Amino acid sequence: KGDVVDIKLSTLDGILLSTNPLFISQACDSPLVGSLPPPSFRSSSQLTSSHGPVFAKVNRREGAGGWSPLVSDRYQWFEVDLGRRTCITAVATQGRYGSSDWLTAYLLMFSDTGHNWRQHRQEDSFGAFPGNSNADSVVKYKLKQPVIARYLRLIPLDWNPSGRIGLRLEIYGCRYTSDVANFDGSSSLVYRRSARPSWKAMEVVSLKFKTHKNSGTLLHAEGKRDDSLTLVLEKGRLLLYHQQGIKVILSIGQLLLAVGSLLDDQHWHHVKLQRLSTHLNLTVDKNTRQVHTPAELIHWDINQGNVTFSCAEQVSVAVTFTHSQSFLQLPGLTSWSSGVVSMALQFRTWNKAGLLLTFNLLQKGGTVWLYLSEGRLRLQINKAGSGLNDGQWHYVELNSRHDHLSITVDTDEGATAHTSIPLLLTTDSQLFFGGCPAQEGSPQCKNPFKVFQGCMRLLTVDNQPVDLIKVQQRLLGKYSHLQIDMCGITDRCSPSRCEHGGRCTQSWSTFHCNCSNGGYRGATCHSSKYEKSCEVYKHKGNTSGYYHIDVDGSGPIKPQLIYCNMTEDVSWMVIRHNNTELTRVHSSPDRHGHLAHFDYASEEEQLAAVISQSERCEQELSYLCRKSRILNTPEGAPLAWWVGGAGPGEIQTHWGGALPGSRQCACGLQDNCLDSNHYCNCDADLEANDSGLLTHKGSLPVRSLVLGDIQREGSEAAYRVGPLRCHGDRNFWNAAFFDKETSYLHFPTFHGELSADIAFLFKTKSSSGVFLENLGIKDFIRIELRSASEVVFSFDVGNGPLEVRVETSVRLNDNRWHSIRAERNVKEASLRVDGFPAAVHEAPADGHTQLQLNSQLFIGGTASRQKGFLGCIRSLQLNGVTLDLEERAKVTPGVRPGCPGHCSSYGSLCQNQGRCVERVIGFSCDCDQSAYTGAFCHEEVSASFKSSTSVAYKFKESYEAKRNISTSPFSIYSDLTLRGENISLSFRTSQCPALLLYVNSFHREYLALLINKHNELELRYKLHGSRDVEVMGSGVTNLADGLLHTVTIRRLADAVTVQVHTRTTHFTPCVTDHHIQFEEVDAELSSLASLGFTGCLSGVCFNSISPLKAALLHPDSPVIVSGPLVQSSCGGSSTSANPYTTETTHSLSDQPGSVDPGQPLVNSIRSDSVLVGGNAIDIRRGMNNRFEYNT
User: How far apart are CA 689 and CA 685, in angstroms?
Assistant: First the structure.
């Protein structure tokens, strides 16, 4: 029920229903004001008759030379009636002639009726227009989008502070003509094609409509196969339904799209329904949505009904409460003395809370408040209605008769509440709508609630409408901060600025995005929570596992859960499909072939992006055969093939391990097939195997497999298509080095009009420089290092330059990698540097929002001649897209591709004595000198031992043993002479006592680490043949408890430190526990060694030697293993510390004849092996030639 204009049902051949459709030519810029009669001009007031609105014509000097109101404030307005609906393209303003009176800023309102005004906003929702700087010059503003209206109203915002409001005005445009039809709710307009046109690639249905009803069917179209589309207005939104089978009456079909909001505002809205092949585009004003739908709508069949070809305008005057000080005050009525009171109004708002109406009960000394709280209507403590902050119009009626009070909400579907409290009002009572006057302590109005921000209309008191035009003219009541004769509500969630499926909610002045349902964050759900590859996770110190990967960051591709295998130097992304197991295919004469489809866990766009950004991808393709040929080489037609590549893929006739297009298997490429006459083993029709890796990224992933030679008797086959595996992130290491302050890279203009995120890594020795800059005519965006500890993100979107700064507590010019992430959207701008707290700057609620740039994007330098950047920039991503710095640097003087030196930043990731090694791209950890393994030397190497298990690591034969002479230990093998040693291991056992470690030398010197019979960790040292054994108790007991314990021993000269978890024991001279004779301890250690060791041992390391790691992972090393040695986990890493450990201190004794403090423990390790896990060993014999671990 409403009006429709410009109905066009058309195809590309130009069939039209309406006559004189809107067509705006370049010549639509004629001046319109000069020829208008005097009654066409109105204003809120005038200073004198010579300052009236009729004199406000550009470059005219009649009267006082223009319009000036009686009072210069923001409640004044100037209005022009153009006589009919007109296409308005531009507005020009000028100050009052010969005066100091001119406007510096103003708002424009448009209307078809002289009521229900609509504010005109620029493209980015900024409403204010620039005015004049003097009284004589003419400032013309061309509207970015023409406006169709009859009435124009100008509202002054600011004016010359040394003068008054002064105005002369010109309006530019041209005549506008269109056909209209008025619908009364039961009428319809029919369009039926007299002949069916040929099928067109595109069909368009477009129209304009206006209505004050929030529901109704706007368009219904039936296709040739009983399909129909229905365009329905529902609660102010347009919904598009598709229905299969027009005979279904109970339903209007499946909802395809929902577009627009607040479309029941009695203003014209443009609707276009466009069919492109199998897509439907639905546009409402400037908001477009797209959906896939069957392309069945070609023929239209509808019956004609009763339609009036004129536009019946319904006039209602609304009032907008925009401010925290907005209120409307109305006087009481004489009729209230009868005890009968009624009040009613309609309101719409987005706010959950706000005061609608309040008044005092003078005779009872009480107060009545009618207000919203949490979207529910409340009268004092009574409540009715809910969800009333949905932006729709809601009707509220308050009635009181003697001792009965009722409140009604939405008469059709609302609720009614009753109370016995009477409303005893008098003529002196005052009604306050929306809020209270700003004066503190007003006895007539107190508001303990929030003020109302929204629209009200159809106010009635005792069934009489309130004349809001009189209120506007100050002839009735009082008001402040109101917009009268318009509803200024806007839907900040239509179109939604929440990205990636974020849910938009709003209040009067702002909106909020709920990002909890996706993998994104930020004020508009723009930024991804996840990293772009397994490579990035690895370089944050993560280990193998499942991770969410967002390959394009803030781009449109959704995150995906991927397994990251980080056990090697490279990080593999593993994407599985529905069948990665070996699958057998049995022969059958009835089968013509076997077809297998592979459905991947990732979507198509995700797969394509992973393959594109990876350095290498591979997929196993294996085929086991018996009388089942593959490619039928060399001349026959292929009997098996697979489909791979992007999209639906292409047929591939090469097999695993061969090159694309070669029509070979791996054996054909290597020239080692079972039958040299064929290029595949299986083509020889024998029992064979053709397996290998597919590595050509353009052919991956494998999407389907066809096996054709399986119907013969005796045919057998089995195949396996492994998961897609990709490693390397070409974007993460993409870098450029800027070695001159004048050097820079340039790229095309950055387009981040509403949302822009910029992320990169940098390292430098310089204290300042510009990382990035892009300029527009006035707008710009820049990120720079302002000082050694300050990064600044600056930009201008038309509201003036803004800066977001982060100051760090460390210097950023330390030649280590640092990360920067800057984001700017319509809500806020933020900047984060490394892990420091982010700096955030909120955007103005109604300011400019679009970043408009037009120059080239400069990286590492600037077009504004500021100091350029010296150093490296890496992994530069703008809105999820990585810029290829290396390729551009190859052809740019002063810039070099790549940037070495990653170990200064990432070296700490190499754990447990692992060594960081620089690579051309990135780095790796060398674990040769570590007892651990893995990408970061973080994985324990451990094994389970039985009492019969031993591991012997063979060293060089001692020089003395070979020569059978006695020589000073300091004269030979100086590379093995030790002033001290570092020993570490972890163990888990329930055995007590137990010998954990035994080290001896050719000169009858040794150390032993054991759990003694008191379940205490004990260390014994003998550094000289004539010296007694020193026993050092650690004070740590209960170690044979089946839990993992870590021990570290360090000695430098005579200072020994033993650490068990976090408890450290230092041994100092003359403070040892006690001394025992050598013969006593020799027998005791022999007894312990004969028991062997049962338990788990991990991370065994003596200086740079790791005998257990050598035995388990490097069988070609000089290792001898006896008994069962089973690799297993000891149950945790060395960081699993016992919380009850403490610290003690000791040292070696300073006895007469003791060893020089600088003498090594093992005088040049003249043993030839390390023994791990021995049993029944004669330790005294072993002393001659062994350096032993006995466990």
Answer: 11
Q: What are residue 1011's DSSP bridge partners?
A: 994, 1017
**Neighbour tally for 1115: CB within 10 Å:** 9
Structure tokens at 1060: 């068990």
Q: Is 596 helix (H, G, I), strand (E, B) or coil?
A: strand
The structure tokens 């896990």 sit at 1173
Lowest mean pLDDT among 475-484, 881-890, 1077-1086: 1077-1086
Measure the CA–CA gap between 336 and 400, rounded to whole angstroms. Answer: 10
Q: Do the bridges between strand 1063-1067 and strand 1144-1145 make them parallel or antiparallel, or are there none, so unpaired? A: parallel
H or E element, residue 534: helix 534-538
Interatomic CA distance for residues 1021 and 999, integer angstroms: 10
Task: Find tokens 């005519």 and name the residue.
Answer: 777
Q: Phi, psi at residue 959, to the nearest 5°?
A: -65, -40
Tens of pLDDT, residues 16-50? 233 334 444 568 999 999 999 999 999 999 999 99
If you write DSSP's letter for every residue of 793-828 in order, what string do you get?
EEEESSS--EEEEEE-SS-S-SSS-EEEEEEE-SSE
For the record, the structure tokens of 226 come out as 């009983």
Distance CA(310)–CA(429), nearest Å, equals 45
Q: To the nearest 5 percent, what fractions of the chain are helix, strand and coil?
A: 10, 40, 50
Q: Which of 130, 139, 154, 138 is nearest to 69 (CA)?
A: 154
Determine contact, residues 214/236, Cβ cutoff 8 Å: yes
Q: What is the C-alpha to C-alpha distance for residues 608 and 731, in angstroms, rounded to an integer?
A: 15
Amino acid code (one letter) for 204: V
HSE-CB for 729 with a 13 A CA cutoff: 25
Contacts for 403-410 with beta carbons within 8 Å, 24 or more apart?
A: 407/370, 407/377, 407/379, 407/382, 408/384, 409/377, 409/384, 409/385, 410/385
Contact between residue 1147 and residue 1067 where contact means Cβ atoms under 8 Å apart: yes
Residue-by-residue DSSP string for 633-676: TTTSPPSEEEEESSTT-EEE---TTS-TTS---HHHHHT--SST
Query: Residue 518: what residue type?
Result: G
DSSP letter at 38 equals G
Neighbour-count burial of 1014, counting CB atoms closer than 10 A to its CB (0-12 exposed, 13-18 middle, 19+ buried): exposed
Query: How would you class 402 by CB atoms within 10 Å of its CB: exposed for 0-12, middle for 13-18, buried for 19 or more?
Result: exposed
- Specify the pTM: 0.75
CA 751-754-760 angle, 5° bins: 60
* Per-residue model confidence as pLDDT tens digits over 1094-1141: 888 888 888 778 888 888 888 778 888 888 888 888 875 433 333 333
User: Hey, how many other C-beta atoms are within 10 angstroms of the C-beta on 1069?
Assistant: 15
Which helix (H) or strand (E) segment holds residue 613: the answer is helix 604-613
955-956-962 Cα angle (round to 5): 135
Cα(526)–Cα(808) distance, integer angstroms: 25
Mean pLDDT of 673-699: 92
Distance between CA atoms of 559 and 543, rounded to whole angstroms?
19
Q: How far apart are CA 641 and CA 660, in angstroms?
A: 12
Tokens of 470: 């009189």
Q: Which two tokens stand for residue 895?
A: 């810039």
- Bridge partners (DSSP) listed for residue 110: 118, 152
Residues near 577 by Cβ (< 8 Å), separated by ≥ 6? Answer: 598, 599, 600, 601, 701, 721, 723, 724
Q: For residues 1020 and 1028, is the Cβ–Cβ distance under 8 A?
A: no
How far, in Å, CA of 424 to CA of 679, rounded? 104
In the predicted structure, residue 250 carries a pLDDT above the cut 90: no
Q: Which of 561, 501, 553 is nearest to 531 (CA)?
A: 553
CA distance 836 to 839: 9
Q: Strand pairing partners for 280? A: 275, 291
Structural element, H or E, at residue 906: helix 903-906
CA 56/CA 172 separation, integer angstroms: 15
